[in-house]
Amino acid sequence: MKKKRFRFQWGAFLLLIFYGGLFFLLFTRMVTLQATGEAEGQELAARAAAKYSKESAITASRGKIYDHNGQVIAEDTLSYRLIAIVSDKATTDPKNPRHVVDPEKTAKILAENLPNSDEEKIYKQLTKENADGEKPYQVEFGSAGRGISHEVMSKIKEEELPGILFVKDLKRYYPNGIFASHLIGFAVKEGNKDGTFTTKGKMGLEYTYNKELTGKDGKVEYETDAFSYLLPNSEKMITPAKNGDDIYLTLDKTIQSFLEEAMTQVEKEYNPESMTAVVADPKTGKILAMSQRPTFNPDTREGTNVKWLNEVIEETIEPGSTMKTFTLASAIDTGVWQPNAKYMSGSYKVLDRTIRDHNGVGWGPITYLEGFQRSSNTAMANLLKLIGDDVFIEYLDRFGFGHKTGIDLPNEATGTILSQYPIQRVTTTYGQGSTVTPIQLIQAMTAIANDGKMMQPYVIDRIVDSSTGKTIQNHEPIEKGKPIKADTAKQVREILASTLTAKYGTAKDFILEDYQVAGKTGTAQIPLGNGRYSWGSDEFLYSFLGMAPVDDPQLIMYVSVKRPKLKGELGSVPVSKVFNPVMLNSLKYLNINPEDVQHVNNATIQDYTGQSAEATQVELANDGLQPVIVGGGGKIIDQYPKGPQKLVKGNLVFLKTEGDVTLPDFTNWSLRNVLVFKSMANLEIEVVGEGFVASQSVSAGTVISDKSPIVVKLKTPAESFKKDVETPSEGDIEQIDDE
Question: Where is the PASTA domain (predicted)?
């Protein structure tokens, strides 16, 4: 048998070497990857995380702005952003297009529904191409395509336009429309480089406190598979959003609404060039209302001839005769005021210049008191001689003129007190030449109203962390000094009141039916430049700086109307049509007792904590007060107002106990009382309207055991108050020292 000869197979050998080498390289690669966790210098874990780890943003809300009663002035609300898919690559089924197939029709329908939009611009956006001639995948439409309401979104969706999508968004919303617009300002969405949008304040408090109001977005991180499905048992990592801080203002929504309504009516009737108004609490310096005309709607930024600055703070004026208030105060405080002494009215020479009274000839020799009541310029010039130039300028400095008040708002102007030349010092006594701001007049007037104590005005009550409810900043009243003595302030108030009631008084238009007002009118020439002034009945700045009630002023108010189109009446008339209704309604809203109540019977309350609510209820009722038990009865754990105090009979006294709350009859309750009850009872009470309670959604006597909302509707004071009918007052509370 022939033996087989072995033949070496080069092909098989080479294949063995080749595949063996590949296996060795693969094995080495696997060992290396296991050992180092890197590939091509990159962390494999990081690359896997980048591919399979996903995250989505949690949008933070911008902080809310409230009035001092907790009613919303500005907040974020749900809106929609419009996106148009224009690339045909988005469509896989021609029968069910996912992109815009008819740009003309789409542009027309969008233009009909989107406010402030243009059909031609929308069409160009839908048909635009990139530099390479390709259409972008999607387009947006700027401000016209953002902040879309649910109503508009629904109308567009009904048209079933292919390629039109809506993304949920947050929009800054101002529910009160034209409402302290120059003070609050506005915020708008602005695009970022990464394609996201952020709400940014552009004016007013929204701009000044943008950092505090802006929140910080959160995120959700999670893991998916290659098809973007959430992996089972994968952990979600949530970084919660931090909403912006909330700002509580000193503004009172009700008083601000009174002011806005009155100013709108006067603007329509007299078409003035501009108007400003401020209402303040002289005891604290809190600004309760502030507005100006022309104005704008912060939701739309629409307005005519709008100045984009807060004139109350940022613009200086020659105040006219309102400045005589402080000339009078200086004379009384220095002891040179002699009301029955006489001077020659008509004209007064200062070197080569002659000062004249507003009628040109004066009224012959008259008393200084009559001269003030007639608003005589020469009376002020003669008083300056008695006071002394340097002393007078020092008093103006004490009153804060020529200095910023320090109000918590930006860009405050200082004004200029001219005192270099004798003629400047004389004209300053009656408010010409030198300049001030309306807020300086308000601050100075607090000293007259507050027995000599001058209070710094402020508009921010507190800033609160919206997540925790913790107060971050708390603004307290600040006394700016005592420019005059208490007796001086009382005398000034009496003389100011006489400008309304005296035979020759110039402020008769400002008399109120139920309250005694003290104040000073102003008629200032408007500077044209180069020392020239405008002239004519329609060419003045008419104003009034007043307070009420005279004996213990609770409100002070400044109103100015520039160049109104008068109809033969005095310039004080349009000013009074703002001042009178706002002051009257505000005093009644605050439950300030009318002055025709000659005798006020008081009742004394004590600290009733720990005592029987039922027994205390009988005791208080016998004293003429109205006790309200908040709870199921038993031991009292809290009360409002706190004791010991004297209250005017008829006042409500809230006694909090444990147990379910029985709903009282809210009829004719003030907003303040409703809010006190809401806070003590911890109930969901929704307040609708202004003024005093007219109806409630849940009947009185109902025991409330859950958190169901209760709606309380209010009527305005004009509807609630009738002649000779008074609502029990919460005011005039006087502290009693413990013995």
Answer: 656-716
Token output for 575: 């000013």
Is residue 451 within 8 A of residue 552, CB to CB? The reply is no
- The angle that helices 422-429 and 377-387 make with each other, rounded to 10 degrees, is 120
Q: Which pLDDT belongs to residue 380?
A: 97
Residue corresponding to tokens 């009376």: 379
- Digit-coded pLDDT (tens) for 505-526: 999 999 998 899 999 999 998 8
Q: Does the pLDDT value for residue 729 go beyond 90?
A: no
The separation between the first and the last C-alpha atoms of the chain, rounded to the nearest angstrom, is 140
User: What is the rounded distance in angstroms from the CA atom of residue 431 to the CA atom of residue 358?
Assistant: 13
Give the pLDDT band (50/70/90) at residue 139: confident
Catalytic annotation on 543? no
Concatenated DSSP letters of 521-537: EEEEEPEEETTEE--ST
CB atoms within 10 A of CB 483: 24
Tokens of 299: 């939701």
101 pLDDT above the threshold of 80: yes
Domain with CATH 3.90.1310.10 in the chain: 58-214
Q: What is the pLDDT of residue 598?
A: 41
**Domain spanning 58-214 has what CATH number?**
3.90.1310.10
Q: How far is CA 246 from the centre of its chain?
A: 12
38, exposed or middle or buried, with CB in 10 Å at 0-12, 13-18, 19+?
middle
CATH superfamily of 253-589: DD-peptidase/beta-lactamase superfamily (3.40.710.10)
Residue 519, SS3 per DSSP: strand
Taking only the tens place, the pLDDT of each residue in 683-704 is 888 888 777 888 898 888 888 8
Angstrom distance (rounded) from CA 38 to CA 47: 10
347-386: burial string, b at 16+ Cβ within 10 Å, e else: ebebeeeebebeeeebbeebebbbbbbbbbbbbbbbbbeb
Q: Which two tokens stand for residue 597?
A: 């109540």
pLDDT at residue number 32: 63
Question: Residue 180 pLDDT > 50, yes or no?
Answer: yes
Tokens of 66: 């409230």
Is the Cα torsion angle 82, 87, 89, 94 positive or negative in sign? positive
Burial classification of residue 548, based on how many CB atoms lie within 10 Å of its CB (0-12 exposed, 13-18 middle, 19 or more buried): buried
Q: Which of 94-108, 274-288, 721-735 has the lowest mean pLDDT?
A: 721-735
Give mean pLDDT, residues 184-191: 86
Which listed residue (79, 257, 321, 330) is catalytic? 321
Which H or E run contains 22? Answer: helix 10-36
> Do 550 and 494 meet the contact criterion of CB atoms below 8 Å apart?
yes
The whole-angstrom separation of Cα 67 and Cα 432 is 36
Q: Which two tokens stand for residue 1?
A: 């048998």
Give CA 126 to chain center in angstroms: 40
Selection from 83-92, 220-229, 478-487, 617-626 with the highest mean pLDDT:
478-487
In angstroms, rounded to a whole number, what is the distance separating the alpha carbons of residues 256 and 236?
48
**Burial tier of 200 (Cβ tally within 10 Å: 0-12, 13-18, 19+):** middle
